[in-house]
Amino acid sequence: MRDDWILVRFGELTIKGRNRGRFEDLMVRQVKQALAAYPALAYRKTFGRLYVELNGEPYEEIAFRLKDVFGIASFSRVIRCGHELQEIRETALQAIRNMDPTPRTFKMTVRRAWKAYPHDSQEMNHLVGAHVLRNTPELKVDVHHPDVELKVEIQPEGTYVYASAEEGAGGFPLGMNGKAMLLLSGGIDSPVAGWMSMRKGLEIEAVHFHSYPFTSEQAKEKVVTLAQRLAYYGGTIRLHLVPFTELQTKLAQSGQEHLIITLMRRSMLRIAEKLAERRGALAIVTGDSLGQVASQTLGSMNVIGRTTDLPLLRPLVMMDKLEIIRIAERIGTYGTSILPYEDCCTLFVPKSPATNPNLRIIERVEAQFGQELDRLVEEAVQGTEMLTLTETSRSDAPAEKAKEDSWF
Ligand code: ATP
Ligand code: MG
Predict the structure, then answer these.
(1) How far is the CA of 336 from the centre of ligand 2 (A)?
(2) Within 9-120, where are the H helices?
(3) Residue 195 contacts by C-beta under 8 Å, 6 or more apart in sequence?
(4) Do residues 111 and 44 both lie within one domain?
(5) CATH number, residue 30
(6) Residue 286's domain is classified under what CATH number?
(7) CB contact at 8 A, 7 and 49
(8) Is residue 318 within 8 Å of residue 263, measured between CB atoms?
(9) What are phi and psi of 219, to 5 degrees?
(10) I need a surface site. Which of 110, 204, 255, 368 has the fewest CB within 10 A?
């Protein structure tokens, strides 16, 4: 007997008790969903791990897909064989030969989980290790810093042999930690904020404010494409398209040019909060990064953030632009984000936006609009269009996605 498996290890191992069970059930469901295109696969769950039997399906393609499933800490290609010593030796040798590039040093680790097995772990280390060494020129033993650790696990139903682990995306399975509304502009930052939230187990619904006809149809298409890209990681994404033109035009009449961005952001949050309530979301996610632009100083964040009682999550707040761009490239949103179409905020950008707006002044300006502001907020919510987007096909993954890179 010899068959091919993938051993999937789950992340966030500190989760205990009932949450652990939920984590694992969600994990298994999402791995199956991500690999739905490969019907011959078979699944077997044991405590804290999932075994996927390949049954002839292509390992490389499946590995590529698995790297994007949240909640996976790592995974390994595993060969399962019988208990005969010679069979185990040959399988171990095969595992090393499967590796590209061939390792220069290795360490042998045999674990005898099935205690009835006649040789103990120490003996097996020698018996299997020596065979691999004899048959692989150039390979040496290094117990401290080996290129690979060749592992053999003897279980009652068979022997599992594997030689390396690939890093997974980590985090939590999607939806494990509830739902949030993501303010999705057409820029570089907010899609990254969305991906990071999803990786933390948040289900995301995206909200985009547009000022059609001042903003183009292409600007809207761009956001749809970005949301679809996020759907690649989550199966489905709902995108709420909010008509912002009237509100924005009204706010522009305040005569306080330098405060317009602050006023717009506050209105955006009011609308997002109402949509969150409607959709059962408990937080709002933005792509704010401290100090990046006038609306993202601490002073601005303070005045803007006071508009809502919901937690405002800003996953990028402490990150450098270059770090954000690297992730954008890795997740396949960067190419779309840098397309030049204007969004609603770039339309009204004042020459010198306030970097430290005063809350009292802002509240006074808003009070001057009276109920007009509430009415426009309500109208925008009522006029919101909701799209349900599913992932684009796997082959649509942009070329930049293929670049092998660690997560950060
Ligand atoms: P991004 O690259 O995400 O557009 P940015 O650096 O351009 O961010 P801002 O334009 O100041 O920064 O926007 C800050 C955050 O406000 C965005 O990350 C996004 O979450 C939200 N936001 C801005 N404009 C819009 C919009 N038109 N629709 C939805 N959310 C928006
Ligand atoms: Mg922007």
Answers:
(1) 13
(2) 17-34, 59-66, 85-97
(3) 230, 233, 327, 331, 333
(4) yes
(5) 3.30.2130.30
(6) 3.40.50.620
(7) yes
(8) no
(9) -60, -40
(10) 255
Tell me which of 181, 182, 183 to substitute to probe ligand 1's pocket, judged by most ligand atoms within 8 Å of the beta carbon: 183
Residues 6+ apart with CB under 8 A from 112: 119, 120, 121, 124, 154
Domain shared by 219 and 321, yes or no:
yes
Same domain, 110 and 155: yes
Q: Specify whether 231 is located in the same domain as 323.
A: yes
| Nearest atom within ligand 1 for CA of residue 287 | 18
By most ligand atoms within 8 Å of CB, the mutation choice from 189, 215, 346 for ligand 1 is: 189
Task: Supply the angle between the helices 371-382 and 245-252 in degrees, to the nearest 10.
Answer: 160
Cα gap 376→210, rounded to integer Å: 14
As a whole number of angstroms, the distance between CA 242 and CA 376 comes to: 12
Q: Measuring CA to CA, which residue among 235, 213, 237 is closest to residue 226?
A: 237
Which residue's alpha carbon is nearest to atom 17 within ligand 1? 287
Q: What is the CA radius of gyration of the chain?
A: 26
Give the per-residue pLDDT at 16: 67
| DSSP β-bridge partners for residue 285 | 182, 313
Question: CB–CB of 219/343 below 8 Å?
Answer: yes
**Which residues have C-beta atoms less than 6 Å from ligand 1?**
183-185, 187-190, 207-209, 286-288, 292-293, 295-296, 343-345
Assigned domain for 29 exists? yes
Is the bond preceding residue 213 a cis peptide, omega within 30 degrees? yes
> What value does the mean pLDDT take over residues 366-372?
93
Query: What would the pLDDT profile of 264-308 be if each residue is shown by its tens digit?
Result: 999 999 999 999 999 999 999 999 999 877 778 899 999 999 999
Ligand 1 atom showing the smallest separation from residue 223 Cα: 28
How many folded domains does the chain comprise? Answer: 2
CB atoms within 10 A of CB 96: 20
Strand order across the 203-210 sheet: 312-313, 284-285, 179-183, 203-210, 236-243, 385-390
Q: Which helix (H) or strand (E) holds 287?
A: none
pLDDT tens digits along 142-178: 999 999 999 999 998 899 999 888 999 999 999 999 9
Closest ligand by atom to 315 CA:
1
User: How far does the centroid of ligand 1 lie from the alpha carbon of residue 342, in Å?
Assistant: 12
**C-alpha triplet 61, 63, 67: angle, nearest 5°:** 120
Residue 219 CA to ligand 2 centre (angstroms): 12
Tokens of 248: 């924005």
